[in-house]
Amino acid sequence: MCSNYINKNYRHALFMFRSPQRRRVRGRKLHKVTAAPTKMIASSFRDCQAWRSEGLELSSSSNEACKLYDAILTQYVKWRNDETLGGFEGCISALHAADPNFVMGHVISTGLELVATTSSTRLDERLAGAVRRTVELAGCQDISPRERLHVRAMELFSHGNFPKACDVWEDILVDHPTDMLALKFAHDAYFYMGAQVQMRDSVARVLPHWKPHTPLSSYLKGLYSFGLMETRFYDQAEKVAMEGLTLTPDDAWSVHTVAHVCEMKAEIDKGLTFMEGREKDWQVSDVLASHNYWHWALYFIEKEQYEAALQIYDSEVGLRCKASGSMLDTVDACSLLYRLEMEGVCAKDRWRELHQVTKAHTDDHVILFNDLHFLMASLGANESGASQRLVEGLKELAKEPGDNQQHQLAGPVGVPICQAMLEYNQGNYSQTVELLYPLRYRIVDIGGSDAQRDLFNQLLIHATMKSQNKHHQKLGRCLLVERDAARPNSALTDRLMQRALALHV
Q1: Residue 291 maps to a domain
Q2: How many CA atoms lie within 13 A of 474 on its CB side?
Q3: Does residue 276 sit within a domain?
Q4: Cα separation of 351 and 397, whole Å?
Q5: Are the beta carbons of 58 and 99 closer than 8 angstroms?
Q6: Residues 188 and 330 both lie in one domain
Q7: How far apart are CA 21 and CA 275, in angstroms?
Q8: 389-423: buried (b, 16+ CB within 10 Å) or exposed (e) per residue?
């Protein structure tokens, strides 16, 4: 029997996509919004017939529900809580009110919460129940094969089986290449797996099917450019991203690609000028804004302007992390402080504040990338109990990972990196090198971007420099030469090389 029951008190904890709390960030007041204006929805988005005419029929008779689905999808693509629409939360509440049994409405709302990686279905019964409800609704309705595949992919992702979920989304795209939800969910899952080539090619395969008049088509430039950048096609990536910005100046993901290109090519002054010149365009994309500020701060660290980097942390990254609770904002805050500490900057009080955000997620173990950053926070705050609990929990899950791809990686990759960080924190630099060096070509598996994972390359180099082992010291100089070849003209590399030579004459 199909249940019509929808819990009126059910809250969609879309922390990655939540409407901003009332808080001032660089003087801009962010208002929490709750309800979607019906007139705006009615005039701007696709109804049942519009979806049907594009070959993407939705199994709902409610035009309002179909338009709200489009409004949610549009905000997802734009990385933005649109206050004029009620933000993600307002639109999702209105969608479920318009059609409580709309299967794709549940797919998008529950799917967004899953890809936010803020909650674990293993621990969060409410989220696990939302997945079950979606599967139940699909099982008792006459929905299309495409919609049924969406339900299957969401269910696989909820169990941590990211590769098979991506296979299903790609199956959808073979027959429905303009299904933006399948494309974006696959893009995010590939990102979590560090599947750089797949992330690029998934978009490349569908590009010819998108026309300029297709809704959201300009945003494919940002998606494709990011895949190009992660596979080292830097010049082409920048070109495609700038094409996207010509079409849509406030496309924060295209801005993000250019920020990455400047980082990877060590074109720091160019990056600073670019980010500052377009700040008014991309800061409205509140879901991604903190991450773009993070890139801005990295440029300052590269230039040894630590106070400027700390100012961005205090006025943007740290504040946004505490306001949103999103995992993207949180890992960026952890990463920024950890990099500054490796550069010799003390961030003790900031670590204690940040640990107040991360400690609630110690047992989540949704993705390894998050776990490693939570560990940075507990180590920085000297919370040894939380650090030990996180690592021990990961070890337990690694024993019987089942189909969970992240837990399968925990044993060979995740736990050793955690142990290397623990050793480094305790001053055991030789052991850090012994743990981290054999994994240097597997670190990509933890997900994230090359720029984000570079933190672990820097950690290894710092460990070699501080190790008393002469072989490790030589290895460190070799790694710096390698780094210089890949990223010429990097001031940070030059600093580390000078430091290594001074330490080991």
Answers
A1: no
A2: 3
A3: no
A4: 27
A5: no
A6: no
A7: 25
A8: ebbebbeebbeeeeebbbbbbbeebbbbbbbbbbb
**What is Dmax (Cα atoms) for the chain?**
77
Query: Quick one: CA torsion of 246, 251, 254, 258, rounded to 10 degrees?
Result: 80
Residue 143 φ/ψ region, left for φ over 0, alpha for ψ in the -120 to 50 degree band, beta for the rest: beta
User: For 396-418, how does the pLDDT look when each residue is reduced to its tens digit (9 = 90+)?
Assistant: 999 999 999 999 999 999 999 99
Residue pointed to by tokens 């590009």? 207
**Assigned domain for 386 exists:** yes
Separation in Å, CA 442 to CA 45, 247, 309, 473: 43, 37, 29, 22
Query: Tokens 């830097």, residue?
Result: 234
The answer to whether position 151 is within a domain reads yes
- The DSSP H or E segment spanning 116 is none
Instruction: Give the per-residue pLDDT at 195.
Output: 98
Answer with the one of 144, 163, 192 that is the final residue of a domain. 192
Give the end of a domain, one of 192, 218, 235: 192
**Distance, CA of 191 to CA of 318 (rounded, Å):** 23
What is the pTM (predicted TM-score) of this model?
A: 0.93
On the 0-12 / 13-18 / 19+ scale of CB atoms within 10 A, 255 is buried
As a whole number of Å, the CA-based R_g of the chain is: 23
Answer yes or no: is pLDDT of 37 > 70. no
Q: Which two tokens stand for residue 224?
A: 């494709």
Count of domains observed in the chain: 2
Integer Cα distance of 257 and 271 in angstroms: 11
Question: Residue 282 and residue 255: Cα distance in Å, rounded?
Answer: 7
Per-residue DSSP letter, 22: S
Q: What is the pLDDT of residues 334-386, one digit of tens each?
A: 999 999 999 999 988 999 999 999 999 999 999 999 999 999 999 999 999 99
pLDDT digits over 108-140, tens only? Answer: 999 999 999 999 999 999 999 999 999 999 999
As a whole number of angstroms, the distance between CA 466 and CA 260 comes to 29
Where b means 16+ CB within 10 Å and e means fewer, 202-238 reads bbeebeeebeeeebbbbbbbbbbbbbbbbbebbeebb
Q: How far apart are CA 191 and CA 451, in angstroms?
A: 13
Residue 195: count other Cβ atoms within 10 Å of its Cβ: 22
Residue 441 makes CB contacts below 8 A (sequence gap 6+) with none
Domain that residue 175 falls in: 1-192
Average pLDDT of the segment spanning 225-238: 98
Nearest in space to 94 (alpha carbons), one of 70, 117, 116: 70
